[in-house]
Specification:
single chain; about 350 residues; alpha+beta; Alpha-Beta Plaits; four-stranded antiparallel sheet; about 50% helix; elongated
Length: about 350
């Protein structure tokens, strides 16, 4: 928390304070004379006020100069008539709006202090946009919390309904993009992104946008998990069906050498990267996610996710996977066309 000891802030409004701090501090609530109050924009600050909120440790020194004493704390304590609740954004009237446009502090009053999108916590600012499926932490008066939850949506039923049309729209656009020929100077034939690269690029774009007009590309956790697991099962089944018929004969007829080459090509880079990551003290979960993404190996990601209930593996995988897959698709076609 921040204790207001700077006399220049006394009489200034919360709005003036937020403009002065310039995103260095996200205000959650104010404790005055032992009572918690919602920080409305036109509320005047007084000496001795305790400001509770979020700030990066690197800003502590500047906050002490501009406001007052900083006391780091993990405790979430609400006194008086205030309460805190997590609410899911499902109301289409608020989706796509910024926190500044909603202006909950003037309407109820209330304040949004956290935003979670999937497994990622976003920085809360006035221009932060709310999207379908976001989970927000709301601080407000106890007797208004139900009204606020209804206003934001908080409908488990709406959240659980799978969005089938946006899913197939994304697949269709990906197939169209993958079929577009890419002319590379020096190659006798154009290259294509194909059925793997096209949907991947479209999915990255739509995942970044999250919503186009009233069409949301949010996937519920259950639907996401089902599609992901189904894709892995179908992928492995197709590999087995395609190679199983002649696998044993190929292995006996000298194929074991290719198996040994493949094992060496797979294991040696992993060992090298692991040793270097150990030297650089890289986070283990981030490392295994990066290695899984660099091999474009969904089963390896499943193993990485099973190591700990964290999003670090998936985030690292998603960062590396698109470029690796894109390069594999294009470079393989370039080699084939060149030779």
């Amino acid at each position: 928390n921040l204790a207001v000891t700077n006399p220049n802030l006394c009489g200034k409004t919360v709005s003036n304070l937020e403009e002065s701090l310039d995103k260095q501090f996200v205000l959650s609530r104010i404790v005055r004379d032992g009572e918690s109050i919602v920080p409305q924009a036109n509320l005047a600050l007084a000496e001795g006020d305790l400001l509770y909120g979020l700030a990066d440790p690197e800003h502590f020194a500047n906050l002490e100069i501009m406001v007052g004493k900083v006391t780091p704390s993990e405790e979430t304590f609400f006194s008086g008539h205030l309460s805190m609740r997590h609410v899911i954004i499902t109301n289409w009237e608020v989706i796509g709006k910024t926190l500044r446009q909603l202006n909950l502090s003037a309407s109820y009053p209330a304040n949004i202090t956290r935003i979670w999108r999937g497994q990622t916590q976003l920085q809360v600012m006035g221009d932060s946009t709310l999207e379908f499926g976001d989970t927000v932490r709301v601080v407000a008066a106890k007797d208004r919390m139900a009204d606020i939850a209804d206003f934001l949506g908080n409908s488990i039923r709406d959240l659980a309904q799978p969005h089938i049309i946006p899913l197939f729209v994304g697949i269709f656009l990906g197939v169209v993009l993958g079929s577009i020929p890419i002319f590379v100077p020096g190659l006798p034939s154009p290259a294509k992104l194909g059925l793997a690269g096209g949907p991947l690029i479209v999915a990255l774009f739509l995942g970044h946008k999250g919503r186009v007009g009233h069409m949301s590309f949010y996937m519920t956790p259950g639907a996401n998990f089902f599609v992901r697991e189904l894709g892995i099962v179908i992928f492995l089944a197709c590999v087995g069906l395609g190679s199983g018929k002649h696998f044993w004969a190929t292995l006996i007829g000298g194929g074991y050498l290719w198996v040994a080459y493949g094992a060496a090509i797979t294991i040696l880079p992993l060992l090298l990267v692991g040793i270097l990551a150990r030297y650089w003290r890289m986070n283990y979960l981030t490392l295994i996610g990066t290695l899984a993404g660099s091999m474009t190996d969904p089963p390896a990601l499943e193993f990485a996710n099973a190591q700990a209930p964290s999003s670090a593996q998936a985030s690292a995988y998603a960062t590396v996977y698109p470029l690796t897959m894109f390069m594999r698709i294009l470079i393989a076609q370039v080699f084939v066309l060149m030779w």
